[in-house]
Amino acid sequence: MAATGVLPFIRGVDLSGNDFKGGYFPEHVKSMSSLRWLKLNRTGLCYLPEELAALQKLEHLSVSHNSLTTLHGELSSLPNLRAVVARANNLKNCGVPDDIFQLDDLSVLDLSFNQLTEIPRDLENSKNMLVLNLSHNSIDAIPNQLFINLTDLLYLDLNPHPEQQPPDARPATAAASHGSPPDSPPEELPENTEQHAYQSGGLAHLADVDLSFNDLSRVPECLYTLSSLKRLNLSSNQISELSLCIDQWTQLETLNLSRNQLTSLPSAICKLGKLKKLYVNSNKLDFEGVPSGVGKLSSLQEFMAANNNLELIPEGLCRWVLDVRENPNLVMPPKPVDRTAEWYNIDFSLQNQLRLAGASPAENGDQKYGELNASLGQRRRWDKSLEKPQLDYSEFFMEDVGQVPGVFVWQIENFVPMQVDEAFQGKFYEADCYIVLQTFLDANGALNWQIFYWIGQEATLDKKAGSAIHAVNLRNYLGAECRTIRE
Asked: What does residue 286 show for φ and ψ, rounded to 5 degrees?
């Protein structure tokens, strides 16, 4: 097709799944001078096509799940480039060009699942970086100067081997994690980074931090300065005490301190007015180690303190979810017997209510009710008698979908759900329809799901129908019993 046709007006192209192993790449791509985003996932690329140099307006480039050993080429010549997603390739440090970090608008970089052994050089020059994912590499050290300039980070993942963590410890949203490989001694955050990056107001927007599965003996002092924290995971460490400075976490909603060596919680924890979830399982807490004011946290919904040394439950701590199993000396509160608590002993049985109303229950009432219940018990519920259609959903959804806690998003294209890369999640367009899957662990540690389908106001009828239909298909594929919810 000639360049004078429709090609110069195309804004986005998804060529994922095509075979470009032989070096063939469509030459007409260079005629798409207005292209804003380009997806080349799972195309067998071994190097970046030279046609990219002509795409001067390109903003988003995704080349995941290929055989790339280098990103050297034309990237640095694309002045508007904002996002580079090159996860699951064969990239080494020598294959990451330094000059891409000079791009003024670069804000998203995903080099996870590669062969990096250190933080890319000159990365600290990307002052507008918002999303940085270097997980699933072999990086065992973080340079002191890294966070000095990256002050606007919203998502930071440096976990070397997250697959070795249990599902409940993996970050599902924005996460900042610092860990060492299991076969090397963990390190703490660099001191210079603490003194400069944090004291100068760096990382002021960081909301989620995951430092689980390290060997931390204390909470890094720099964390106490992050007043914007909403979720903090310090589980599976060797922390024995917390500072009173935790009252600086005024926005904190979730705090996970499970599997540590804590014998007490500081009284300052009672000042965390927005705290909703507190996990302290598998520590050494006793009744005196839990501040009495914890029960006055009005927003607290979940309190998990299984496998400790609790003897009593602090007053007022009965929330939506309360887990105090495996506390051998625990004594539950006795049933009240004084007259001020007579409401506790109200008998709501039918027989008692009939007696109070002055009616005499039928002599054979129990027998009749028993026969009725027996007959009803033999009948199958109508919804249990339904059978799911024997359909093959594997062509729409991958095998590991819904098996790891987190959020997955699909966009409806040509009646088919296309999974959205993690870096591009969170931005929906009114002319499109999406399916959103949230996978989480319930109170019993079992996988559970919530499925939503989002319909844009300007979306066409085929996309609307596709999102609703495939949301149900996803539910059937997972064997979930939840409802699909329209958003």
From this structure: -120, -175
DSSP 483: P
pLDDT above 70: residue 74: yes
Domains of the chain: 1-139 (3.80.10.10), 406-486 (3.40.20.10)
**Strand 37-39 and strand 12-14: pairing?**
parallel
Distance CA 116, CA 113 (A): 9
Structure-token pair, residue 138: 């072999």
Tokens of 79: 């002045």
Q: pTM of this prediction?
A: 0.50
Residue 479 Cα distances to 171, 269, 436, 482, angstroms = 24, 40, 16, 9
What are 387's two structure tokens? 């059978």
| Token duo for residue 103 | 């791009």
pLDDT tens digits, 323-335: 888 888 887 766 5
Answer whether 129's CB lies under 8 Å from 107's CB.
yes
- Distance between CA atoms of residues 336 and 333, nearest Å: 9
Facing residues of 13 across strands? 38
Fill in the amino acid letter for 56. Q
**Measured distance CA(71)–CA(99) in Å, rounded:** 11
The radius of gyration of the chain from alpha carbons, rounded to an integer in Å, stands at 28
Compute the distance between CA of residue 465 and CA of residue 191 in angstroms, rounded to an integer. Answer: 55
Nearest residue to 422 (alpha-carbon basis) of 435, 407, 437, 432 = 407
Cβ atoms of 114 and 87 closer than 8 Å? yes
Residues 71, 45 contacting (CB under 8 angstroms): no
Phi, psi of 256 (to 5 degrees): -115, 110
Torsion of CA 329, 330, 334, 340, to 10 degrees: 130
> Beta strands 406-413 and 433-441: pairing type?
antiparallel
pLDDT for 257 beyond 90: yes
pLDDT in tens, 275-291: 999 999 999 998 888 88
